[in-house]
């Protein structure tokens, strides 16, 4: 079930676009990099991946209705 995801609101990185959900003050996001899906937990606008092979990425919030990045 994708009820926890918010496809209408997203963040972008230089690598990919991913869905996310707010958990308290943190942000749980699902990121796809190089055909690999990694779970990530974000505080404020910094995304720290649970999988240590990925570096930290800063997130930029997208408020546009139509994203040109897809």
Give structural notes.
- With 70 residues, this protein is an all-beta fold.
- It has strands at residues 10-12, 17-23, 26-33, 36-43, 46-49, 57-58, 60-62.
- A hairpin with a 4-residue loop joins strand 1 and strand 2 (17-23).
- The chain is globular, with a radius of gyration of 11 Å.
- The relative contact order is 0.23.
Morphology: globular
Largest sheet: 7 strands, antiparallel
Structure summary, number of beta strands = 7
Helix/strand-derived class?
Answer: mainly beta
The oligomeric state is single chain
The spatial strand order of the largest sheet comes to 6-5-4-3-2-1-7
Let me know the average pLDDT: 45
Share of helical residues: under 10%
Short characterization:
Helix content is 0%, strand content 50%. It has 70 residues and is mostly beta strands. The chain has a domain at 10-50.
List the helices and strands and how they pair.
Blueprint: E1 10-12, E2 17-23, E3 26-33, E4 36-43, E5 46-49, E6 57-58, E7 60-62
Antiparallel strand pairs: 1-2, 1-7, 2-3, 3-4, 4-5, 5-6
Could you list some keywords that capture this structure?
70 residues; mainly beta; 7-stranded antiparallel β-sheet
